[in-house]
Amino acid sequence: MDTLVFLGTGDAMGVPRVYCSCETCTEAREQGENIRLRSSVLIDNGSDFLVIDCGPDWRRQMEAQGVRNMRRLLVTHAHFDHIGGLPEWADSCRWMGYKGQLYAPAEVIPIIERQYPWLRNQIEMIPCDEGIELDGWTIDTWKVNHGKNGYSYAFRLEKEGYVWVYCPDSISLGAEETRLMHGADLLVLGTSFYYEAAELSTRSVYDMTEAAELLQTVKPQKAIYTHMSHDVDMRKSYILPENVTLAETGMRIPLGSSEIS
Length: 261
What we know:
Elements: E1 3-8, H1 23-30, E2 40-44, E3 49-52, H2 58-65, E4 72-74, H3 80-83, H4 86-96, E5 100-104, H5 109-115, E6 123-127, E7 132-134, E8 137-145, E9 151-159, E10 162-167, H6 175-178, E11 186-190, H7 208-218, E12 222-226, E13 244-246, E14 252-254
Parallel strand pairs: 3-4, 4-5, 5-6, 10-11, 11-12, 12-13
Antiparallel strand pairs: 1-2, 1-14, 2-3, 7-8, 8-9, 9-10
């Protein structure tokens, strides 16, 4: 059975934020329960693995897992917190003597290439819009609304009847955008705040109160919230649906089971 590993669970700025002395950031500096690296996950099949997104904390995340080589990556979109680690990965590929494989929607690839024009020397960039299969997972991808930040993409992965969805950056999704989420065994969803009071047009990611309404519509068996800002304090108890868990760094989820460790 494959295992989902949470490498990072933070929003674009991570926790603690350098300038901030709020209770969450202070605790993160002193005790560390609230430390959050930029959001990323690893799918481990026991002999190899896939990673989704490669932010600026990539090196630290790989070291924490004891991983010395990464050959394959899926990218949700080309914002810095999701691609900032690509130069380090490319350098790793160069030293290890192989070419990495990066799978991303076709419109995302040119953005990555403009940002890091030398990456193609070490990384093959492969469009995944029409669906791909990796490690027995049938993977579909589609565009989702990212609010004031434009767009992102979500991934739906299915293997041996088990379906899970990864959607870290989205807000105010419509019927077509949620179509492939319905009835998933697991939905991993970005929720930057518990409740975000800012005007909707200025925002880019669901808060947890809005996410609860989304879950009532798409009805996953389990949901895990990730991409959390310093508004979320892991020491506190929040009113959440019974099937929701807040992601923690290093948390491991058997993909094919309802167990969470």
